[in-house]
């Protein structure tokens, strides 16, 4: 029982909120904290019990809040610290905990620490960052930033450069410096003292850089090399993460989910062991990453993939950790395109395909994460000009594609597939101007399909995707099957049947089976099991004798008796 209390996040369904796009309470076109407070009843009705807030700290918004200028203050565009405290309290009354994004690989170049570092690069605050003198008339090494171009920015009027793994407005923090680490620990504990239930740790496997910051052989025509070789999951990272855990979220039994690129499945258990993992969980990215080649994930450099590849990656990830570890599983987040457009063929981009996708991940072993709008089937956008897009990575990827020789139209196809703005368009609350998101001019255009896809319409329709998600969440959290779907073992089924993803969860002699038909053709399998219907996106089971027939994009969840 004591371990269950400590691992409360196993009995959670997390809802990610991108505050800028969720709900605008004051008509300035930007979502805000008071807007989230107004929509808590909606979230309680949906059934989620944890909210993850993307960054709301003070920021110049070069990367929409992932460039933090003050870790202790809410950005005025979102509200005040008092608004955040009210949100924590009001959510708590509804049985909902608040988890905050924590961005500590880097901070804004407008942060006080960095401004002091610029004044004295060799001084106390200069050591909070990677500030180095150039070499041979250029940057200290040949690393390329995640967003393209050199990962080093010159400090004007000096021989110095500073490292930025991401944009030049995001200066990397030097985690080798103990004083810097102590500042971070103090800040994280300060937030937990105010009722925050944990953190999503952004880009956390970038904290450790390779000793000496060496150059590597170029891997591109620009003469640069992806910074991943010298900054992603480097030797020594686990010691840093262990200290971070022990000084902050670990003793408090808080939720800690790591955005941990670079962790191979065979190494995952050390990060997410239920006994002594570095985090409560890390996100399971494998099935998303199959679409792009190479460590830089250039959007124009795609690889062919099928649903069989997705199935293989899902099952391999679970096999790697078995029942000893715990993943955060998801279909969508603020950095990925909408799942309906990404995972489904054209003929499956409807209620049946979307509801089938939900069943693929909602009952896997791990904590499910929903992203705002996923529950109503929000879709991506196709705007004609790159100027229509706000996302800094979209602009960088567009330029990379054009330099590679792609036409404007070809480059825009990459943007349509992978732009982060696909997930960041304002939430579609109702069939009203701007989808009911704001009474003003929205910071980013609302998807034109808000008249057909919106929360009000789906809440009024008992057969909608919203109600399907609500049903699955209730099965997961508050039904007679909750223990099976949380702590039960995970075993793949019918792996050799093409375009069928099926698995079984079992616990204390009871078994739940999940069948997801990833195609428009019917799928027939033989099973001697008696299946007791729990949920089906067609509403019934088609089984004659020992033959189970799954219709196009059908999702069936049943107890095997």
Q: What is the percent of helical residues?
A: 25-40%
- Mean pLDDT comes to 95
Any idea what the CATH architecture of the domain at 487-560 is? Sandwich
Strand content: 15-25%
CATH third-tier fold name of the domain at 487-560: Immunoglobulin-like
Low-confidence stretches: none
Query: Overall 3D geometry?
Result: globular
- Given helix and strand content, the structural type is alpha/beta
| Count of discrete alpha- or pi-helical segments spanning 4 or more residues | 19
- Write down the Rg: 23 Å
Features of the shown structure:
single chain, 561 residues, alpha/beta, Oligo-1,6-glucosidase, domain 2, Immunoglobulin-like, 8-stranded parallel barrel, 5-stranded antiparallel β-sheet, 29% helix
């Amino acid at each position: 029982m004591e371990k269950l209390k400590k691992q409360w996040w196993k009995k959670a369904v997390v809802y990610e909120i991108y505050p800028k796009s969720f709900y605008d309470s004051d008509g300035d076109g930007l979502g805000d904290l008071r807007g989230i407070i107004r929509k808590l009843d909606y979230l309680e009705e949906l059934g989620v019990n944890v909210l993850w807030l993307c960054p709301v700290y003070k920021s110049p918004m070069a990367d929409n809040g992932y460039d933090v200028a003050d870790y202790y203050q809410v950005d005025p565009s979102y509200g005040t610290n008092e608004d955040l405290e009210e949100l924590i309290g009001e959510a708590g009354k509804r049985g909902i905990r608040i988890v905050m994004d924590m961005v500590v690989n880097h901070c804004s170049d407008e942060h006080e620490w960095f401004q002091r570092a610029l004044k004295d690069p060799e001084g106390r605050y200069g050591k909070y960052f990677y500030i180095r003198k150039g070499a041979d008339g250029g940057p200290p090494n040949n690393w390329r930033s995640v967003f393209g171009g050199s990962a080093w920015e010159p400090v004007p009027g000096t021989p110095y450069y500073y490292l930025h793994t991401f944009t030049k407005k995001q200066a990397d923090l030097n985690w080798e410096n103990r004083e810097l680490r102590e500042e971070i620990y103090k800040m994280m504990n300060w937030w937990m003292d105010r009722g925050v239930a944990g953190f999503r740790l952004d880009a956390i496997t970038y904290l450790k850089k390779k000793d000496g910051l060496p150059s590597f052989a170029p891997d591109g025509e620009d003469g640069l090399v992806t910074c991943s070789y010298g900054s992603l999951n480097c030797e020594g990272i686990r010691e840093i993460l262990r200290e971070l855990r022990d000084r902050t979220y670990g003793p408090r039994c808080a939720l800690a989910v790591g955005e941990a690129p670079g962790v191979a499945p065979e190494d995952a258990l050390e990060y997410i062991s239920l006994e002594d993992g570095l985090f409560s969980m890390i996100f399971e990215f494998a099935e998303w990453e199959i679409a792009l080649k190479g460590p830089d994930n250039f959007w124009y450099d795609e690889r062919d993939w099928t649903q069989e590849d997705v199935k293989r990656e899902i099952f391999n990830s679970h096999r790697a950790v078995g029942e000893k570890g715990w993943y955060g599983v998801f279909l969508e987040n603020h950095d990925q395109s909408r799942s309906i457009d990404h995972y489904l063929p054209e003929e499956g981009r409807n209620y049946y395909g979307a509801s089938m996708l939900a069943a693929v991940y909602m009952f896997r072993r791990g904590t499910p994460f929903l992203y705002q709008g996923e529950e109503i089937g929000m879709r991506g956008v196709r705007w004609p000009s790159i100027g229509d897009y706000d996302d800094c990575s979209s602009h960088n990827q567009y330029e990379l594609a054009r330099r590679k020789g792609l036409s404007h139209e070809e480059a825009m196809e990459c943007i349509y597939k992978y732009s982060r703005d696909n997930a960041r368009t304002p939430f579609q609350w109702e069939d009203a101007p701007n989808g009911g998101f704001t009474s003003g001019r929205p910071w980013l255009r609302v998807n034109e399909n808000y008249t057909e896809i919106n929360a009000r319409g789906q809440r009024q329709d008992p057969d909608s995707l919203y109600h399907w998600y609500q049903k699955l969440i209730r099965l997961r959290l508050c039904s007679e099957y909750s223990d099976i779907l949380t702590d039960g073992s995970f075993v793949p089924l019918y792996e050799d049947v093409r375009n069928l993803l099926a698995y079984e969860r079992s616990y204390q002699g009871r078994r739940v089976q999940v069948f997801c038909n990833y195609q428009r053709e019917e799928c027939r399998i033989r099973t001697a099991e008696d299946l007791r219907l729990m949920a089906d996106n067609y509403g019934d089971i088609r089984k004659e004798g020992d033959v189970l027939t799954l219709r196009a994009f059908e999702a069936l969840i049943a107890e095997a008796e």
